[in-house]
Amino acid sequence: MIKKKLALVALCVITVVPTAFWVHRQLSIDDCLDAGGSWDYEIGDCDND
Q1: Is 17 exposed, middle or buried (0-12, 13-18, 19+ CB in 10 A)?
Q2: What are the E-state strand segments in 1-49?
Q3: First-to-last C-alpha distance (Å) of the chain
Q4: Using one digit for the tens of pLDDT, what is the confidence trace for 13-31?
Q5: What is the DSSP pairing of strand 45-47 with strand 38-40?
Q6: What's the pLDDT score for residue 31?
Q7: With 80 as the cut, is the pLDDT of residue 2 above it?
Q8: Confidence (pTM)
Q9: Burial letters 30-42, b for 16+ CB under 10 A, else e
Q10: Burial class of residue 7 in the structure, from the number of CB atoms within 10 Å of its CB (0-12 exposed, 13-18 middle, 19+ buried)
Q11: What integer pLDDT is reported at residue 49 of this predicted model?
């Protein structure tokens, strides 16, 4: 029973953590574009020029 719970927790962590990073990146891109900038995918930062 404990192995099943541990496996479920591990699966959740493996799924949630990358998803949280992806959502954070998408929100950063959206904020940049809303502010009138352009997103530089090569460096992963907002270009406000």
Answers
A1: exposed
A2: 38-40, 45-47
A3: 57
A4: 999 999 999 999 999 999 9
A5: antiparallel
A6: 97
A7: yes
A8: 0.77
A9: eebeeeeeebeee
A10: exposed
A11: 74
Fill in the amino acid letter for 12: C
d(CA 35, CA 20): 23
- What share of the chain has pLDDT > 70, as a percent? 100
Q: How many residues does the chain have?
A: 49
Task: List the structure tokens of 36.
Answer: 């009138």
C-alpha 11: how far from chain center? 17
Looking at residue 23, its pLDDT comes to 98
Q: 34 by DSSP, 3-state: which?
A: helix
Q: Span 29-46, mean pLDDT?
A: 95
